[in-house]
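Lab meeting, action items carried over

1. Structure of the two-component assembly. Owner: GW. Status: complete.
Input record:
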Amino acid sequence: MNINRRTLLGSAAAVAAGGPLVRPARAQGKPIRIGVMNDGSGPYRDIAGLASAAGVRLAVQEMADAVKAEVLYADHQNKPDVGAGIARQWFDRDGVDLIMDVNTSSVALAVNQVCKEKDRAYINTGAATADLTGPQCTPVTIHWSYDTWMLARSTGGAVVQAGGDSWYFLTADYVFGQQLQRDTTGFVTRGGGKVLGASAYPFPGTTDFSSFLISAQASGAKVLGLANAGTDTVNSIKQAAEFGLTRQMKVAALLMYLSDVHGLGLETAQGLYMTESFYWDLNERTRAFAERYRALYPTARPNMDNAGCYAGALHYLKTVKDMGVAAAQASGAATVARMKAMPTSDDAFGKARIREDGLAIFPTYLFQVKTPAESRGPWDYLKVVVTTPADQAWKPLAESGCPLVRT
Amino acid sequence: MISIFGVPGPLLFGQLSLGLINGAFYALLSLGLAVIFGMLNIINFAHGALFMLGAFASWMLLVPNTWLAMISPGLSVPDWLSLGYWPALVVAPVLVGAFGLLLERTVIRRLYKLDHLYGLLLTFGMALIIEGLARNAFGSSGMPYRTPDALQGPVNLGFMFMPKYRLWVLLAAGGMCLLTWFLIERTQLGARLRAATENPDLVQAFGVNVPRMISLTYAGGVALAAFAGVLAAPIYSVNPNMGSNFIITVFAVVVIGGMGSILGSIVTGFGLGIVEGLTKVFYPQASATVIFVVMVIVLLARPAGLFGKAA
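Predicted assembly:
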């Protein structure tokens, strides 16, 4: 070590201050650091943003007696290179042990590679791509809340059963939209329906969908499948109503969150079908969770992404308590292996488990948006139409395509 | 049913009319840019942010109590102070134009003697600040703005159902473009403006207050952007990013039309809206890129732009 004036002064000060300045954290080793990364300024901000970070903070608060943990937040701006850069910086400089949320599938897949390379745990609760637990699965990755296959089966399957046998897709032209369209097409054709066409629009940056909507109208299809999310979905539905499309076609919003219903308003959104794996008003436990969440984030009720952040972080912290902080910080793969071995239990998703490909398994719900007359007040928006049990809701393990699955 | 290149006729006409409406926005925005560049030699990158401010101003005039409550609970004004769409069409551009005047007087003025690059950097920075502040205050989802009652509902054009409001946009934007063109090319005021661009010292020697004229020109260009913002409010949700979605395309329009050419920006704005509309029929994935492809081709063939004079 070079001795110069600054280090000399620094150590002199430390000696002078003596024992009391030594932080208790140092005595117990480094605290666990959880990085929450998502869209903090673009079309998906109001789905995830700080609402997801609040979910993680709630879990940290509830486990505070057992494990000391800190929460960091970053905006990836929906750019895969920005996301991967933040992940590297978090691991190399800031000592982050776990990355969470990461909505936007293109960014999610980029961060996935960095986590694998650095052997750090990764719980994705915000992205839809089923590839996270398929061909691109890793020993450090867990996918919570939902994926394109599960959405396609629930919403797509239900619409086909109700007689919607010809489809036109409006698709966000990147990995998420393409996969959602692909998976839904699978269920449509299996159900005897056919796909008449699709418009893939550039993402992000498209705000006017009118041209694609009249293409959909001209196709003569019965169902308009929206393979997009966030404000894109909200704008598509609004503009579909503006152009009188909703009178001729049925709109199937393949990925829609509670927050989107709030943005649309019940007047426009009523009657739409949508799928989530969580709703705050399902049962006693979910209502209790939503109440605790409200203390940290009063402006909105949690959606499945925010709830997944809570449940994922809670299960992670329980595992860390079980195996010890030092062991958890040493290897992300070892921690995730332990998480898969332990059954999960939380107020948001109930009792569940994590499969060997990293997918968290619990029941999913097909909801219908209430009419303004049915709603009892703010955030009372959804009613359950179909509950799909955990063993049928997700892509079968045999079809997962994940190299970790031994067949 | 007739069909052209395998595309049904009604669909093609529908896309053409939508393209024309988008083109109206391009024309209105690039017109403001062209006026400002022509008179001030400033590449106004803050134009998109000022367009967004126009939309926000109309929203703020409509529901003053909603955003006052967001700033500080308990703050409110009487209901009769809230202004609907029609008054906002005039008031919002005036307010945002006054804000533009303030910007010109305080900061932009200092850059006239410097290279273009400084003006570009300054206005770009201003755009980032304005958009960042708006995002901080109002989030990114956007605020709903109801279409005025008189323009609710669609009209049957025979080949498609066109929302009445979009037809009104076409009419209003087209009219405003014509008015601006007439003002600059056909009136005495316009003649003075053009003369001041050619030789400011000489025009000043004739007793014309050139600095004041330049300030008002900037404010006028900004008011045009704000006017487009008010028109856009009911179509797109009023959100902080709405300007940055437009601005790059609009710059391409100005470059294709020829920097500083009034007629060029109007014609190119409408023309490119149509090109974009057609691309959405035949190959939607390229709809964001097609304008830049056109720009490359035009610049290779005519470096000064379609209507620009070679320097």
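2. GW to write a short summary for the group page. Key points so far: The longest helix of chain B spans residues 9-40. Residues 3-247 of chain B form one domain.
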